[in-house]
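Tip: read the tokens left to right.
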């Protein structure tokens, strides 16, 4: 089972110090750092440890429109077959467009309920394709919305577009999710990375309950990687309203990661996803928790 702890990073624009509050499962410590030359905030930070298992039972292929206004998902299934697809977002059905069951040469249009998409007479090897309008599904942020509107990048709640097979056993089931991306774009997700190549990135959703929250970033932005102890840390620096010095952001993130090492004695999880949106002046904030549940 995936292990989760929470970390909240808070920047204090009017203070002479930057305080990092870590709230681990077993203990809590606070570390204080000197400020950078300007203020930037951590928009989303997710810590997740994922166990490595066997091959995935289910395979999802995600294609993005070039302007990031929509995506299409093709979900294919093997035994045991799901009875339906389910969403853990009460509003997800509003963004769902065409849903079609592909069984050999035949196709059948499916009717979606508010939280479910029934799969009648499904057989091994069958697939379901559905389209999602994400123009109104973006996570808005006052330091991010300007660049969002230019379609350079998008930040999405996973439950806005990802419909899960049901039943789904978090201990034994897994989904390989492959993102087929427009040229020059990349993706950051809070799951186990399987493969990264030009135009396609594959993650594995495994050892993680389907109702846990998460966010993905897609578009043109800078990505960094760092090894902290035995952990792999993947950092995505999204574009805010102004250009920023990524070296300063890197130093800021590194100091906070080092503080987490001090709080635990070792890095608490083997994998970490960090999403950063730089913000000028006051108003820096966090959004999202890696251990949050939908229900």
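Filled-in amino acids:
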């Amino acid at each position: 089972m995936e292990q989760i702890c929470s970390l909240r990073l808070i920047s204090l624009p009017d203070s002479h110090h930057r305080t990092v509050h870590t709230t681990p499962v077993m203990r809590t410590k606070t570390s204080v750092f000197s400020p950078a030359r300007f203020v930037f905030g951590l928009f989303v930070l997710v810590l997740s440890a994922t166990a490595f298992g066997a091959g995935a039972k289910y395979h999802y292929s995600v294609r993005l429109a070039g302007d990031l206004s929509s995506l299409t998902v093709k979900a294919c299934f093997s035994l045991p077959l799901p009875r339906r697809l389910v969403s853990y977002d009460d509003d997800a059905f509003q963004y769902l467009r065409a849903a079609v069951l592909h069984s050999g040469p035949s196709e059948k249009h499916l009717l979606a309920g508010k939280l479910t998409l029934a799969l009648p007479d499904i057989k091994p090897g069958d697939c379901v394709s559905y389209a999602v309008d994400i123009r109104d599904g973006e996570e808005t942020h006052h330091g991010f919305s300007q660049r969002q509107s230019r379609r350079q990048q998008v930040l999405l709640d996973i439950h806005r577009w990802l419909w899960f097979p049901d039943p789904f056993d978090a201990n034994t089931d897994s989904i390989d999710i492959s993102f087929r991306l427009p040229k020059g774009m990349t993706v950051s997700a809070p799951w186990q990375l399987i493969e990264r190549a030009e135009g396609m990135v594959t993650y594995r959703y495994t050892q993680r309950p389907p109702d846990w929250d998460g966010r993905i970033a897609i578009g043109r932005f800078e990505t960094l990687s760092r090894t902290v102890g035995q952990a792999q840390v993947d950092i995505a620096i999204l574009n805010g309203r102004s250009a920023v010095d990524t070296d300063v952001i890197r130093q800021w993130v590194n100091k906070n990661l080092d503080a987490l090492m001090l709080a635990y004695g070792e890095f608490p999880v083997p994998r970490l996803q960090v999403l950063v949106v730089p913000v000028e002046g006051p108003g820096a904030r966090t959004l999202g928790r890696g251990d949050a549940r939908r229900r």
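Confidence is low (pLDDT under 50) at residues 1-53, 140-147, 287-295. Residues 138 and 156 are 5 Å apart (CA to CA).
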